[in-house]
Amino acid sequence: MKTILYILLLNMSALSFAQDPSLFENTWYLHSVIINGQSYIPPSNSEVPFIPLDFFENSSDDFVTNVCNSFSGLLIYGNQSFTIQDYALTLAFCDLQENTTFEGIYLSFFFDPTTQDPYSEPFLYSIVINGNEKTLILENINGDKAIYGDQILSSENFQNLYFAIHPNPTKNELFLTSTNTSGNLKIKIFNIEGKLLSTQTLEFEKRVSLDVSQLSSGIYFLDIEDGNGNSTIKKFIKE
């Protein structure tokens, strides 16, 4: 009887720490950081077009985010919370001063200034759904917040442009399909660190293919813009 009760308690504990699937299903894009009550809006320029945050299951890293540098690591999950157990941070330099300044602000949300390591206390998170839009709110031990959306902040017409990409993951070729756009598309490919790798313009009519065979294995982003300036971001994995 004690054994059965112990197993039940373990199962209840595991269930209580189950995470919201949306945390892993979306790439989150930083919309603002609130430090000591002051709100900071991320830059959007040629060097840093957006600031993504991804959470992974069954991967060597549990999360990764980046401005000019990549910040990644392992997490221990709690009830609507996580603790950074181990981490890696690259040491590159931004070309633009506004990116350098904002990167320092953004990383200060995660890092304890007294230890210069990530806060040892849990980060709380919540996901708010409003229609087709999702918002992820992280909160650190000081009550500071980092607010992300599943859509790019600067893309006012994001919801008007619909694309599907397949296969994903892919090895050599990636297909884009859409039923509500045609004409010339400007397509940019960014790596996980936000670096622009290529730009091309293609004539589109319901379906087009992209050769990605030269890319190394990893996570990439497609920035797709139509002739009216509407744009959307799609994530894909190159095997």
Automatic annotation (TrEMBL):
Keywords: Signal. Residues 165-237 form the Secretion system C-terminal sorting domain. Residues 1-18 form the signal peptide. It comes from the Bacteria. Transmembrane segments: none annotated. This is T9SS type A sorting domain-containing protein. It holds the Pfam family Por_Secre_tail.
